[in-house]
Amino acid sequence: MRRMGERVAWGFFLAWLGQGSIQAAPLSLEGALEIGREHSRVAEAARARAASAGEMRKEALGYFLPKVDVQEVAIRTEQPGEIFGLGMNRRDDMVALMGRAFGMTADDQGRLSTLGMNNEVLVNPDPTTTWMTRVSAEMPLFTGGMLFNRVRQANLAASATELGSARQLDQVDFDVARAWTDVAKAREFNSLLSRARETTRAHVQMARDYAEAGFLVSSEVLRAEVYLAEMDELVMRAENGARLAQAALNFHLGLDQGTRHELGEMPALPDASEELVVWAQRAAEDRKDLAAARKQLKAGELESWVAAAAFAPTVGLQGAYDWYDDSAFGLDEGAYSIKAALTFNVFRGGSDRARLAQARHNARAWRQDVDRFSEGVRLEVHQAWGDFDSARLRHAAATQALGSSRENLRVVEDRFKEGVARMIDLLDAETAAREAEVRELAARYDSHMAHFQLRHAAGLGILAN
Hints:
- The protein has 465 residues and is of the alpha+beta class.
- It has a domain at 25-64 and 145-311 and 349-457: Outer membrane efflux proteins (OEP).
- It is built from twelve helices and four strands.
- It has a four-stranded antiparallel β-sheet.
- A hairpin with a 7-residue loop joins strand 3 (314-325) and strand 4 (333-343).
- Helix 4 packs antiparallel against helix 5 and helix 9 crosses helix 11 (351-417).
- The longest helix has 67 residues, at 146-212.
- The two termini are 53 Å apart.
- Residues 1-23 and 114-122 have low confidence and may be disordered.
């Protein structure tokens, strides 16, 4: 009882030590997909790009609104003309202004009316400082459709970015599903080899007992022991593979690579696969990256309209209000100005025509790229559909072969116990059974992965709704 109590205590202690690294509830594939979307760095980057695309729309719409600026300018000059002009803007007294601008006294200004301008009374003025506070606004009234099409391009580009980000999230799901399946496969493979090793160990012990009884020569025992050593090596490799698969899963989940998960059940495969044409149609409708490419093509085609706007006249409006003072941000005296401009494109060296031709050529090239991408998607779906169909057939064949190999092992084992079969026959039967189990395991998990690949290629979620 005391020893049993110590074991229980040690069990609780070890569980307490590992509670931070071992997940309590089994991690289902659905749960893994949720964790991947929440913690994966790729998913976080995709969400950030989608948010950036939303801001792109706001930026484009902002070009339709007036542009308003506030500017503070300090002007220090000793040029008489500038001093005179700035003084007039400040509404200075004329006598004081003439004295400041031209260095003239009141008597000098009186003599000008009778003597005219005379260099004897004109001298260099002292430098003066004027502060100007300006509020200006600009508003494009007509740009030949350039701004309108730029906004349309921005909306299409933003939608394409959002669709591309959504496709990246689908890729995160696929990577997580593949990593989760690899962990399940590696652990089952390790378990399979461990069971096979225990079977081999039992047969080795049986061989030793027969050798001691004189029913078996020592060379047969040695051969069985060599086979057992090979099984030990295979088990160690399988254990390392399972650890690496777990680390890869944590990498795709965005978790610490030392975290260990107990996995849930593998989702069931569908009973039958739909026709290729159905999957290809789904891909054409549901593939987000293909939809993004089509929107980018539309945005590129609008570039021809933007380039053609250069041949249309443009109308713009600009207004400003300026305050002039002797101190910064002073509002002593002010005045407004309003400007309207109508501009015609008469000649720009042919650059506008070249730009229009370039936009049209690029649109044709992009259209070919999108068509080729669409055909590539069809080819990807075709390959995934063929891989899934082939994997299911291989799994059915491997399952049938597994049953035959297990029955063969049972018969040879019985014959060995009766002294009819040799040790080499038993080891060969073990090898055949183990290889059949490995083929069945590989074909089963290949079927799951091929199904995931097919759904991903068609633009569908990893798990069926």
